[in-house]
Amino acid sequence: MIQKIALVTGASRGIGRAIAEQFKKDGVRLLVPSREELDLLSSRSIDGYLEALDEPVDILVNDAGINRLGDFSVFSDADLEDTMRVNLIAPIRLTRGLIPSMMQRRYGRIVNMSSIWSIVSKPGRLTYSVSKSGLNAFTRSLAVEVAPYNILVNAVAPGYVNTELTQQNNTEQDLQNIRKMIPMQRLAEPEEIARLVSFLCSEENSYLTGQCLVIDGGYTCL
């Protein structure tokens, strides 16, 4: 079997790192560009990275994202533009650059990392929620267009995940309160999210496309 090649953004930490490690276990060859190699805030950087690619990419995981919290009335234009550029525009541009080769080879797996905040929300997350909701819409629309070429496009929407960022942004009391709100009474581990992404990008998935799969321990069911 020919070894698959996966491009994973945001692989330096958290969920992205867990996805990269899972792909290694799966025997997938990884492309995990640093920010110096691929700056998602820069259209020029994205174009340059795509032009420099000299091998076909079979799997694309758009994991990198930013979540700048703040009340909408005081949210700056710069924060708005950066959030949309990294969370929505960059995944679209990367996908647009890689899709032609996938269509030619009639094979591709694309996973966009969404969030439960694209489905529910809370104060301070308006711009982030908008960007992730747009990513869900992009996922559905693209899936319909490329399905005849055996390219499957899905989104994964994690809830609270036990990452370094979650630990930094919440006190221990905050985390205790969050656990009480989750039916499973715990945060997800990054590896659990990675295993779902692994399935979506594997040969085992041959028909599931255009979906946003929520993995949140039941949080959004309440």
Question: Care to give the gist of this entry?
Answer:
The protein is an alpha/beta fold and 222 residues long.
Question: Describe it for me?
Answer:
It is built from seven helices and six strands. It has 222 residues and is of the alpha/beta class. The chain has a six-stranded parallel sheet with strand order 2-1-3-4-5-6, sandwiched between helices. The radius of gyration is 17 Å and the shape is globular. The model has no long low-confidence stretch (mean pLDDT 96).
The fraction of residues assigned to DSSP E strands is: 5-15%
Query: For this structure, what is the CATH homologous superfamily?
Result: NAD(P)-binding Rossmann-like Domain
Strand count, sense and closure of the main sheet? 6 strands, parallel
> What structural category characterises the helix and strand content?
alpha/beta
- What's the number of domains? 1
**Element pattern in H and E:** EHEHEHEHEHHHE
CATH-defined architecture: 3-Layer(aba) Sandwich
Q: Helicity, in percent?
A: 40-55%
CATH class category name: Alpha Beta
The number of strands is: 6
Strand order of the largest sheet: 2-1-3-4-5-6
Determine the number of helices (DSSP H or I, runs of at least 4 residues). 7
Coarse shape: globular
User: What average pLDDT do the residues reach?
Assistant: 96
Radius of gyration from CA coordinates: 17 Å
CATH domain fold name: Rossmann fold
Amino-to-carboxy terminus distance: 44 Å
